[in-house]
Amino acid sequence: MIETTYESTLRELRTDEGVLRYHEAGQGPPLLMLHGSGPGVTGWRNYRGNLAFFAEHFRCLVLEFPGFGVSDPTDEHPMVAAPSAVLRFLRGLGLDQVDVIGNSMGGIVAANLAIARPDLFRRIVTIGGVGRNIFSPSPGEGIKLLMDFTEDPTREKLIRWLHSMVFNPAVVTEEMIEERWQQATDPKTLESARRMYSREAMAAAAAASDQAPYWSMLHKITAPTLITWGRDDRVSPVDMALLPMRTIPRAEVHVLPDCGHWAMIEQKEAWESTVLAFLTRPDGGTAG
């Protein structure tokens, strides 16, 4: 088994817009892993439990987005800064095309890049988040709790938000709460989070009309795409998957029961086996 400790996998890439930090493990075809957003999130925390599994088959690259307290900070909205960070990262490593896994925000970043750069990704895997609410209220429960924490960061509000991320509350351990609390309350990280999830920022984003929303352009994604979702997701409800399922030409969907927003954590083995089968499928495309 490949060693995948924090220290043994941590790397740095110096770019013209600051240092990008990432975790690297394994050999083989490159697999980019993009994390989600929220208090105390990092790429390592999203994917540390999956890294050893995928490192047996791929050169895994877990990028830390600017604005989340690991890579150098950014003055931009983190969602705006993320796509250019991915392109700088891949360019710095000399990679023209990769497979990509994106969790929530990371999936949206991957979708936007795939729309703009159709040849960038060989295959795409998303975990929740991509699409738009159809039958469920927007924003979802988890997003409202995220806004509550961002505007008034207390330990109790962090715990309530963490519990909204999972189906099984036992997943939220004291260790998880503590490490998330330390990261989420760092002043620069909190300032960056407020650019995304304060009520003022959310209202401004909803009112913006200078360009078409990304979900209206999902039909431009040409790469085979696997959409994975927790059936019991309270952050981005599963009805959001209907739009990308119907509009991404080569999309397929896998919904995991007894599972919240973190499918790669809460249904680890089932999610990993599904994703590996998709990424290693000989025909390189969707079933059928």
From TrEMBL:
Has the keyword Hydrolase been applied to this entry? yes
**Gene3D superfamilies given in the database record:** alpha/beta hydrolase
The protein's name: Alpha/beta fold hydrolase
Domain (AB hydrolase-1) ranges: 29-266
Task: Name the species this protein comes from.
Answer: Saccharopolyspora oryzae
Q: Does the keyword Amino-acid biosynthesis apply?
A: no
> What GO annotations for molecular function exist for this entry?
hydrolase activity
Q: Per its UniProt record, what Pfam families does this chain match?
A: Abhydrolase_1
Which keywords appear in this protein's UniProt record, sorted alphabetically?
Hydrolase
What highest taxon heads this organism's lineage?
A: Bacteria
